[in-house]
Amino acid sequence: MATITGNRISLTPREMPARWYNVEADLPFRVPPMMSPSGYPITARELEPLFPRQIIEHELNARSRTFKIPKEVREAYQQWRPTPMFRAATLERELGTPARLYYKVEGGSPSGSYESNTAIPQAFYTKQTGAEGIVTGGAGGVWISAIGHAAALFGLKGRVYSVRKPGSDHAWGDAFGRVWGVDVLASPSESTRVGKLQHDRQGPDSGSIATALAEAYEEATRNPEVKFAIPTLMGHTLIHQTIVGLEAQRQLAAVNEAPDYVIGSIGAGSHFGGLIAPFVPARIQGRDTRFVAVEEASTPSLTRGVYTEESADAAGLMPQVPMYTLGREYSPPGVLAGAMRYHGVAPIVSALYREKYISAVAHGQVESYSAGLIFTRAEGIVLSPHAMYTVKEVIEQAMRCRESGSADTILFTVTPAVSTESTPYDALLDGLLHDEKLEETSLKKSLSRFIGRN
Q1: C-alpha torsion 360→366→372→373, nearest 10
Q2: Rounded-to-integer distance, Cα 419 and Cα 172, Å
Q3: pLDDT tens, 69-124?
Q4: What is the four-CA torsion angle of 139, 141, 145, 147, rounded to 10 degrees?
Q5: Top-level CATH class of 85-112+235-450?
Q6: Domain 116-228 falls in which CATH fold?
Q7: Main-chain phi, psi angles of 227, to 5 degrees
Q8: pTM for this structure?
Q9: Are 223 and 339 in contact (CB under 8 A)?
Q10: What residue spans in the chain does CATH classification 3.40.50.1100 cover?
């Protein structure tokens, strides 16, 4: 049974879910498939050189409602899962809201974030194939730590193409690569054709998550001894993240609650999708649960993007994914919430948005960081950048409840900041933080490829 101590709701390790949930099996509409370069839906055979068989099963199987979490993965999860849930009573009092705010703390993992939820099964399944290593792309230390720890756990070599720091030969998160023994290359690099071409044409500071993924994908297609891993976007990553929503469902049930709002920030959307997925069936059956995705104002894929087929990477090497996107050629400004600078949104999340099960808002970094500071001073957790965007919308909704008198239950997750050298609020408190504007010229150029296609 769940334990309730003050404002904390805890599950025992035995109460951790034993199966991931596949929401696609319960949707009353069809999520369009990924498309291969041939113009037909992608097949398992086409994905076999890149992904383990079990990952392909998670990706392409739209019929199975659940997938068993392997014993080895459950044992690794139990290092930090189940994660605790808290009632934000202090924040509620300070806001003067009748809303009931519940947040799940997705820290405690070796990476300090929820990204270990998918890194560990991807590494485990890669090891099962007999591959020597795992290669991926990213934009900082959290994913590098997640994949580095997972690779070490199962005896794999790891390589990460990570976005290059401006004016530097080093990548974001390379220090975490050294901790885990992972080879981190600054992207765009000169180690791949994709990276070298971009490096020469657009300069060393032109990197993005999409470029880093393109480099990793290219290496995986050339090297049969490695498998490709991806931190977000794909269906299997969202399935792995449903452990968060499944735990949250059990914790709320322990206090006889069900959410009226589930709010979360999105980059490509897998964590948000994993959080909301277990609550979607109730919405389908008539419960008025509202799911709110929070974007960075400079990268508003849902609120300003188009719904089309687009590649997950900057070079167009990966399969065409049906999603809301700003286009893979969009060059986002360098906001501090790097994980929110991705050009597209996960197919399942995109489909839910298109079918109006999800709403979306966009916030700037100054207002989000300011909201994050309010949360930190009330609840005692220094937040990671993307969590501040979630908190910004949570506070706004809580204030709407104060005005209307509605005692809504609001569910969200937060992740703590991982750096001990500085705080995410330094630029805000020093008066140096500013909002980055949407790159209208880049957006128009990127979206121009889709004119007449929809």
Answers
A1: -160
A2: 13
A3: 999 999 999 999 999 999 999 999 999 999 999 999 998 898 888 999 999 999 99
A4: 10
A5: alpha beta
A6: Rossmann fold (3.40.50)
A7: -120, 155
A8: 0.91
A9: no
A10: 85-112+235-450, 116-228
